Amino acid sequence: MSTTEQSTDAAATTDHWDVVVVGAGTGGCYASATIANAGYDVVILERKPASEAGHIACGDALKGAADFPDVIPKSELEPAFTNTDVDHGRFEIPQEDAVLEIPIPGELAVIDRREYGRRIIEATTEAGTDIHYDTVVTDVVQDDDGRVTGVEAIRDGDARTYEATVVVDGAGSLSLLQDRVDFSTSTFDTNVDYTHFSSAYREIVHVDEPVEWSDALVIKPTERSAGYLWYFPRTETEINVGLGFQMSEEPMKLVEDLKRDLENRDEFQGATVKDKLGAALPTKRPHDSAVHPGYVAVGDAAGHVNPTTGGGIAGAAYAGAYAGEQIVEAIDRDDVSEDVLWRYNERVMDHFGARFAALDVYNILVMAADLDDLTGLIAAMPGDKLSEALYSGSANVGWKLKLETLYKSRGHWDTLRTLYRTKGRADDLLAHYETYPSSPDGLAAWQRERDELLDAVYETTGADPKY
Known about the structure:
Blueprint: E1 6-8, E2 13-22, H1 26-37, E3 42-45, E4 61-63, H2 74-77, E5 81-83, E6 88-93, E7 98-103, E8 108-111, H3 113-126, E9 130-132, E10 135-142, E11 148-155, E12 158-169, H4 177-180, E13 197-206, E14 216-221, E15 227-233, E16 238-246, H5 251-264, E17 272-282, E18 291-292, E19 295-297, H6 313-332, H7 338-368, H8 371-379, H9 383-392, H10 399-408, H11 413-433, H12 443-461
Parallel strand pairs: 2-3, 2-12, 3-9, 6-14, 12-19
Antiparallel strand pairs: 1-2, 4-8, 5-8, 6-7, 10-11, 11-12, 13-16, 13-17, 14-15, 15-16, 18-19
Helix pairs in contact: 1-3, 1-6, 6-7, 7-9, 7-11, 7-12, 11-12
C-alpha cells in the first residue's frame, strides 16, 4: 500500500486507492495485475479467508491457455494443469444409445481450480496488488453525478470505506454491487434476470481404476432439457463430476439425476468424494454494456461465459486484461467517464462477446425444444460441425453433409428444419454484433435492431422471450 493514505474516525476506517477490485477470481486478478503493472495502487477485496481464496465451483476445463493475456505468464498457471491429454468431447446420448465424439479446437487442459486460483492470486500480488481477505462489500459509494467513487465493506468485523478512482466488479454472476449502483446516468446493462443464470454443482471423485475416457470431456443430458451432467478427468482416477441447470428448474430433482447416473456407471463403483461445491453462472449474452462512470464489470459479473458450454475462465481473463488496460488509460487521462471506458466494451464484443451472443440463440432453442427430438437430431449430426457451432456460434455445412444429416435424421425433420432456421437467425445476430457501436450514444439504436432480430429467434424456435 505504498501511496495509500488512511484516516480513521469513530465510525469507520477510510482507505484511498487508485483502483478497488471486488473479487479475487480470474477477471479480478487479470485486471488488478494489469493495473498494478502500470504503477497504480490496487487492492482486491476478497470475502473468503486466504486459505479458501480461489476455491470455487468449476468444471475445471480450461481452453486456450496458450493464448491468454501475458500479464500473467502461462508458466505461472501450468503447475495447476493436471491433465493436458484431453482433446475432444464425448457427448453421451442415452435416449439414442449413442456416443458422439466432438473435436475441441485449440489447446485444452483440465485443471485443479483451487491451485489455479492460488496461482493467479500469487501472480497479481507479485505485480504489486494488495489483497484484503475476509472483506465483505456491503454497499457502493457514488457522488452527486452518479460516478462510483468506492465501496463500503466489513473487514475482520470492522466497517471500512474504500475510496477509489475506479471500482472493478469481479464479484461473480449474482454481484451485490449491481444491486447497489444507481445506473440511471449510464447505459450499463440492467436487463438481467435470475432465469438468465444456471446453478452448477460439482464433486471431486476418486476412483480405483483409470477411466477409459481420460482424454475426453464427457457431457450427458439430464432427463430434462434444462440440465446436463459432466465428467471431466483431472487425472485418470480423479474426476470432476457435476451438474448444470437453469435456475428456473427444480434443483433437487436434477441433482438426483446426477446421483442416479453415478450409481449406474461401473467406473464409479466404490468411488470416494473429496470435495463438494456449488455456484451460479450466467448462461446469457454478455452485458450490452459493462461500464459506468468509475465502474467496470468483468467476468461472470458481466456475463462473460460461453452460454452453451459454461466455460468462463478464458473470457474472464481477457475481460480483466482489457478492463485493466482501459482503466489505466482513463486514469492517465484523468477521465473515468463512460465515454472513455467504452473502448473496453468494444474489445470484449470484438473478441468473444458477439460469438457468445450468437451461441445464446441455441440456448433459447434448447429451452423450447423437445428433448428426445433434439438429442436424436444431435446424434445424427457430424461431430466436427457440432464442435464448430458450439465454439464459434455458427458452422458451415456443405451439401454432401446436409444430405447425409438429412438421411440420418429421419423422424426428426421438423426439429432439423427448426435448427437450420435457428442457425440462420444466429448468423444474423452474429453479424449485427459486429456493428457494435463505438460510443454509448449509438447503443439504443443498436439494441432496437438487435431486439428485432431476437423477435425472429423467438418466432423461429417457439420459445418465450428470454430478455
